[in-house]
Amino acid sequence: MTPEVAMQKRKQVIRDGYCVVDDILTEEFLEELREESERLIAGHEPPPDVRYQGQHVGVRGVDNPIIQKLLDWPQSRRALEQMGFGDFESTGGIIILTKDPGEPALYWHQDWMLWNDPMSCSPWPQTMFVSYYLTDTTIENGCLKIIPGTHLNRIPLHDELIPAHEQGARFIEEDHPVMFSDHPDQVNVFAKAGALVLADARVLHSAHRNLTDERRTLILAWHKRPMTIPDNWEDDIPGVIANRDPNQEYVGSRIPRELLG
Question: Which superfamily does 3-227 belong to?
Fold first, then answer.
């Protein structure tokens, strides 16, 4: 990326909660990841409560050299550094997520788990999911949907959602009128195979149903930065963060309360 493009991507992540960086994986490595993900999926029986996530295969880098190669991929590290996110580090593992032919949509949710912590108000990202798509994505094969800005601003949908994943959303019916709804502000995120999609854990997102006859696969990694003010942050700092007690322990929560404006 040129410095100008990197700055545009950074601003998009901060403003909208996501960005797409093309051509991160080489064709050779992309094919290697396709073969390895199919090998791992072949021996996996996903439990029924993750049917909206697809296969949902978790792999640690220390247990798989190909996955570790992805976590250490220099082009990804370079992209993060160019965008000013060089203090983000991988949590050490990935999840293979799929949409097989005919599989249902993924419900609306956000993945931040520390809504009682004042750091929830950070105008910069603290935790990002980093998705590598192994196939081109379209509406028809189950591309990602995001509602830009919802990592920083509350919308009515926040207060209508069932809490994410194991806290309720995994057990809803496929015709739930809210969790699988379309939203007027949603953006369909189209990604080419080998692209990198960065998204703030707090942003509301979901995915379309796969209406094609081919599997849509992505490899998702979580990246986190220290619970501190970034050294390169030059804009205003919310008072609740400036006055945050770094030694206090905050009870985890998936439910955004008063800290989401």
Answer: q2cbj1_9rhob like domain (2.60.120.620)
